[in-house]
Design a protein that fits this description.
single chain, mainly alpha, 5% strand, elongated
């Protein structure tokens, strides 16, 4: 018969193909053509294309019918999207504290739930668990985010650097 169509399955509003190589043969939408034209204009603005090349590529972009045709217009140009900025050490430490705080909160809530499920009689023993886990969390937050967190490693009495374990 003709060309085989890839096996597809519905997913949300679109179709997901089992063969990623066939995706560039998809029909291009007006938004795809506009996005490609915008990227070509950005490349012209930074000097990667001259006025003649820009005009030719824009005509081809608006005449393109498939995603593959649009990709060919940008094949010799770098990706205009900026690279993501890596998180700083302080931001990573802040994320770790948030994760630890979530774990402490879940653990403490579990202890309160056990206390309540067993009749909530007697003293409120989860208070001790909450106190110890909160002190540990505060210590870790101070160690990771406090004023000495960015300082040089501490030196022991013999003048040797002590190893600081943050993990």
């Amino acid at each position: 018969m003709g060309a085989e169509t890839p096996s597809c399955r519905p997913f949300g509003e679109g179709v997901v193909s089992s063969e990623m190589a066939d995706l560039p043969q998809l029909r291009a939408a007006d938004s795809d053509r506009d996005r490609a034209a915008g990227e070509l204009r950005e490349h012209y603005a930074v000097g990667r294309l001259d006025a003649n090349e820009l005009g030719e590529r824009l005509e081809a972009a608006y005449a393109a019918t498939t995603v593959a045709e649009l990709d060919r217009l940008r094949a010799d140009l770098p990706d205009p999207r900026p690279l993501p900025v890596p998180a700083s050490g302080r931001e990573l430490a802040r994320r770790r504290i948030y994760q630890d705080a979530g774990a402490v909160l879940i653990f403490d809530a579990g202890c309160v739930a056990v206390w309540a499920a067993t009749g909530a009689s007697g003293s409120f023993w989860p208070l001790w668990v909450i106190l110890v886990s909160s002190l540990r969390l505060a210590r870790d937050a101070w160690r990771l985010l406090g004023p000495a967190s960015q300082a040089a490693p501490a030196v022991d009495a013999r003048g040797r650097r002590r190893r600081r374990d943050l993990g």
